[in-house]
Design a protein that fits this description.
single chain
């Protein structure tokens, strides 16, 4: 039995995914999450075989969730389910450790196929992405240079995402259950490592890096 956790901030979407995947005799949905931080905690606790993850989450980007899941539950394979076909998102997802990337406009059967392909140890990308994205990923991996983002701690990345969205220090402190002073410490360290001077620099960096998506900007 393939154990799966669903992570999407829309309850209706999770219901639809559950109905679709539970129709398969070898799939078992063992949990659901509506936020990035909640997803990481649930995966660490339940250690599913597969995490089906929306790219846009309310408190932590899907890209960062993928990276942290890879560290905390290395046996869990992640399939990104997203409306974004932008190559930058696909490449960052693969780079952070995703095993699959399925577009939300895909057919129901495609997600089922993605789970079977990924669990067999192969990478799955929706057909419009496959050949071009994989080749670009391989080339980028070969040419990879050190990225300052890799120097950030998990908490600094969380603060970056939330601060770039415009949350205040006290709001971030409340969401992460830490003190405002600790938030400011993480923020200062993050800004120094990334060589950012102000809020606008932080916002631009988050957009360029794919930490903030179009959906979050519109929201």
């Amino acid at each position: 039995m393939i154990k799966i956790i669903l992570a999407d901030d829309h309850h209706v979407v999770r219901q639809g995914l559950r109905s679709l995947l539970e129709a398969e005799s070898d799939f078992e949905i063992i949990g659901e999450a509506a936020g990035g931080l909640e997803t990481i905690q649930l995966v660490e606790q339940m250690e599913p075989d597969i995490l089906v993850l929306d790219l846009v989450m309310p408190d932590l980007s899907g890209l960062e969730v993928v990276r942290q899941v890879g560290q905390r539950s290395p046996k869990t394979l992640v399939i990104i389910l997203s409306m974004h076909a932008n190559e930058a998102y696909v490449l960052e997802a693969l780079r952070n450790g995703a095993s699959g990337y399925v577009l939300k406009k895909a057919t129901a059967g495609e997600l089922v196929e993605a789970v079977h392909v990924v669990i067999s140890g192969r990478r799955y990308l929706s057909p419009p992405l496959s050949e071009h994205a994989i080749q670009a990923y391989i080339q980028k991996a070969d040419e990879r240079i050190e990225d300052s983002y890799e120097l950030l701690t998990d908490r600094e990345r969380e603060v970056l995402h939330l601060a770039a969205k415009g949350l205040t220090g006290p709001e971030i402190a409340n969401l992460l259950s830490i003190s405002p002073r600790t938030v400011e410490m993480h923020r200062a360290n993050m800004m120094h490592k990334l060589e950012l001077r102000n809020q606008l620099d932080m916002f631009r960096y988050a957009v360029r890096k794919g930490i903030l998506t179009i959906d979050e900007l519109d929201g």
